[in-house]
Amino acid sequence: QKEVEQDPGPLSVPEGAIVSLNCTYSNSAFQYFMWYRQYSRKGPELLMYTYSSGNKEDGRFTAQVDKSSKYISLFIRDSQPSDSATYLCAMVHTGANSKLTFGKGITLSVRP
Amino acid sequence: GAGVSQSPSNKVTEKGKDVELRCDPISGHTALYWYRQSLGQGLEFLIYFQGNSAPDKSGLPSDRFSAERTGGSVSTLTIQRTQQEDSAVYLCASSFRGETQYFGPGTRLLVL
C-alpha cells in the first residue's frame, strides 16, 4: 500500500459543477498537506497549503483535512474550463527534510 | 523574478548512454529537490539539497543516479547507463529553507 492514495480518475464535469478531489494517507506522521495543480507539459504549482484539521478557503477552492480519518479533500466551486488540469495531493511529515510525498494525481476536465 | 528553469526540455537517448539534466533554482533559494514523474508511479522524490548540509539521497532508485549542486545554486542530475525504465519527466523544485516548493517545467527523458 502506498503512503498516499488518490482517486485515479479521470474526471469530467460540466462547467459550473462542484468538484471534489480526495486523498487518503496511512502515515500519521504527515503534518502538512498541499494541493498542486499541473497543466500539461508544465511543472506542478501550489494551490493550497494547510497543516491543521478543518477547512481552508481561497476563492473557489476549499481544502479540507481530517487527520483522525487520514483524509484530505479539495473542493472546487463553480468549476471553469481553465480548471482542467491534473491535481496532485502532497504531504510532508516532520523530520522528512520537507520532501513531498505525492498522490498519483487525478486529471480533471471541465466541459464548457 | 525568474522561476526555476531546467534544461534540456526534452532528451532522447539510447539505452546505455549517460545523461545530464540541469536545474537552475530561484535565486536565493537554499533548498533544491529532484523528483521523477512517470506514468503509473506518479511523482517520486529523488534527492534533496539544503545549503551546505549533506544531501538526502534516500529517493535515488539505484547507484546509476547521482546529483550534485555546485556553489549552492545550479544542480545537475546524472543518470549513467540509462535504461528504458528511466524514461520519465524529471522535475526540479527549489524553496527558501524548506518552505513552499516551486517547480520547474521538467525535462522529458525518453530512453530508446
Keywords:
heterodimer, A: 112 residues, mainly beta, five-stranded antiparallel sheet, 11 strands, B: 112 residues, six-stranded mixed sheet, four-stranded antiparallel sheet
Please, could you describe this protein's structure?
The complex is a heterodimer of chains A (112) and B (112). Helix content of chain A is 0%, strand content 56%. Chain A has 112 residues and is mainly beta. Chain A starts with a strand and ends with a strand. In chain A, 35% of the residues are buried. Helix content of chain B is 0%, strand content 49%. Chain B is built from no helices and 10 strands. In chain B, the strands form 2 sheets. In chain B, strands 2, 4, 5, 8, 9 and 10 form a 6-stranded mixed beta sheet that branches. A 4-stranded antiparallel beta sheet of chain B has the order 1-3-7-6, with no helix packed on it. Chains A and B meet through β5 and β10 of A and β4, β5, β8 and β9 of B.
Summarize this entry quickly:
The complex is a heterodimer of chains A (112) and B (112). By secondary structure, chain A is mainly β.
How are the elements arranged and paired?
The complex is a heterodimer of chains A (112) and B (112).
Chain A: E1 4-6, E2 11-14, E3 19-25, E4 30-38, E5 45-50, E6 54-58, E7 61-66, E8 71-76, E9 85-93, E10 101-102, E11 106-111
Parallel strand pairs in A: 2-11
Antiparallel strand pairs in A: 1-3, 3-8, 4-5, 4-9, 6-7, 7-8, 9-10, 9-11
Chain B: E1 5-7, E2 10-13, E3 19-24, E4 31-38, E5 42-50, E6 65-69, E7 75-79, E8 88-95, E9 102-103, E10 107-111
Parallel strand pairs in B: 2-10
Antiparallel strand pairs in B: 1-3, 3-7, 4-5, 4-8, 6-7, 8-9, 8-10
